[in-house]
TrEMBL record:
<protein>
    <recommendedName>
        <fullName>Fibronectin type-III domain-containing protein</fullName>
    </recommendedName>
</protein>
<dbReference type="InterPro" id="IPR013783">
    <property type="entry name" value="Ig-like_fold"/>
</dbReference>
<dbReference type="GO" id="GO:0005737">
    <property type="term" value="C:cytoplasm"/>
</dbReference>
<feature type="domain" description="CS">
    <location>
        <begin position="233"/>
        <end position="333"/>
    </location>
</feature>
<dbReference type="InterPro" id="IPR008978">
    <property type="entry name" value="HSP20-like_chaperone"/>
</dbReference>
<keyword id="KW-0472">Membrane</keyword>
<dbReference type="Pfam" id="PF04969">
    <property type="entry name" value="CS"/>
</dbReference>
<feature type="domain" description="Fibronectin type-III">
    <location>
        <begin position="116"/>
        <end position="217"/>
    </location>
</feature>
<keyword id="KW-0812">Transmembrane</keyword>
<dbReference type="InterPro" id="IPR003961">
    <property type="entry name" value="FN3_dom"/>
</dbReference>
<dbReference type="InterPro" id="IPR007052">
    <property type="entry name" value="CS_dom"/>
</dbReference>
<keyword id="KW-0963">Cytoplasm</keyword>
<dbReference type="GO" id="GO:0006457">
    <property type="term" value="P:protein folding"/>
</dbReference>
<dbReference type="GO" id="GO:0051082">
    <property type="term" value="F:unfolded protein binding"/>
</dbReference>
<dbReference type="InterPro" id="IPR037898">
    <property type="entry name" value="NudC_fam"/>
</dbReference>
<keyword id="KW-1133">Transmembrane helix</keyword>
<dbReference type="InterPro" id="IPR036116">
    <property type="entry name" value="FN3_sf"/>
</dbReference>
Length: 363
């Protein structure tokens, strides 16, 4: 030990005046290849030291100074390997126990400052309920902990309703999710989220909005808004219903409108119903134009005619055939402005129900 490390101890610790005899200083060649050390130990030590020095230089040297392509690729691979090593280490039981003890003993003081969540998404799932997803921006701190505060409100309103989310069964891998309930139906809701711990809250995430679901009528359908031509009709909403295999639409039209004044075009995934006018207008005014929420059969199977109803007035009765007879439709048009119904309230006869079930359904 004195022969190998004696000069270093004397140099760093100023170990002078000691009774322990110190060998003379060694040259660089003797330090790289000590004559007393075995050959295999010297070679392995030099290789390890060289690899450590190269890795250290690849990490600390700025990326703009790495002119060679293979150096940039080596740096990227090294960083990826280090991240993988840290990730695998964090999954072990000893690391988790160490992190858990540190979080409990520090009472949150060792946590880092929170950053706002990102990739916030929201989806209407049931009547009065929406599911919210987001990705946290967690630091490389094993003792970091945070919980989240969610606020929701009506679009256009200045008031917010607050809800706290903790770590009890809400985490799904790298994403978090929670359910907001007791929401008004057929209402545009905006939501936002932020992280919070002992160091204080983060800034709010970006706001996202969604239209909540609505309870369908007895026919499994609902109403929807018309296009610009709806101002000329008795009502500005169309009605739709669904049964096994068919979608029935009632689209209002202006009084005195005839079949030649209507432009009707049906495709497997698109529906176009426009009012041409009498006399003809410069541009057709849309009544119901857009993509369908689900596919229908070929256009030859689409049937429509003009009818008159005391409630709706003069309208077009359209029958669309579903591509899947037992499939449930949440809405006719694939548009956020058209309300979507809660499919759990929709019951379509599939041929497997008994006569008793059908009698109860019609009662």
């Amino acid at each position: 030990w004195l022969k190998l490390f004696g000069p270093s101890v004397r140099y760093f610790l100023k170990f002078r005046g000691s009774s322990v005899p110190m060998p003379p200083r060694r040259t660089w060649g003797e330090m790289v290849w000590p004559p007393e050390a075995p050959l295999w130990l010297v070679i392995s030590g030099n290789i390890s030291l060289t690899m450590f020095a190269c890795c250290f230089l690849l990490l600390v040297v700025p990326k703009r100074f790495l002119f060679k392509r293979f150096l940039r690729k080596a740096r990227a691979k090294l960083v990826s390997s280090l991240r993988r090593m840290v990730f695998l280490s964090s999954q072990g039981p000893f690391f988790r126990l160490f992190a858990w003890c540190g979080r409990r003993c520090s009472c949150g003081y060792l946590a880092s400052r929170c950053r706002p969540p990102q990739s916030v998404k929201v989806k209407a799932t049931r009547l009065g309920e929406v599911m919210m997803f987001w990705s946290p921006q967690l630091p490389m701190n094993p003792f970091h902990e945070e919980f989240y505060v969610i606020e929701w409100g009506r679009v256009g309103a200045s008031t917010w309703n607050e809800m706290a989310v903790r770590e009890s069964g809400s985490k799904d891998q790298d994403r978090w999710k929670t359910t907001l309930s007791s929401l008004p139906e057929m209402t545009y809701i905006r939501v936002r989220v932020r992280a919070l711990n002992r160091h204080g809250p983060s800034s709010w995430s970006d706001e996202v909005s969604v239209l909540t679901l609505v309870k369908p009528n007895d026919d499994g359908g609902f109403i929807g808004p018309l296009g610009s031509a709806g101002d000329l009709c008795k009502t500005q909403t169309y009605h739709w219903a669904q049964i096994r295999g068919d979608i029935n639409l009632k689209i209002p039209i202006p009084d005195g409108c005839k079949g030649k004044d209507i432009k009707f075009k049906a495709l497997p995934s698109r529906l176009e119903v426009s009012y041409l006018g009498s006399p003809p207008l410069l541009e057709p005014q849309p009544l119901l134009v857009g993509l369908l929420s689900k596919r229908i059969t070929k256009a030859d199977d689409v049937f429509w005619e003009i009818q008159t109803d005391d409630k709706i007035g003069r309208h077009i009765a359209v029958t669309l055939q579903k591509s899947e007879a037992t499939e449930k439709w949440a809405s006719v048009m694939d548009d956020d402005n058209h309300p979507r119904v809660d499919l759990s309230y929709v019951r379509v006869f599939t041929g497997e129900e008994s006569i008793t079930d059908m009698t109860e359904m019609y009662e």
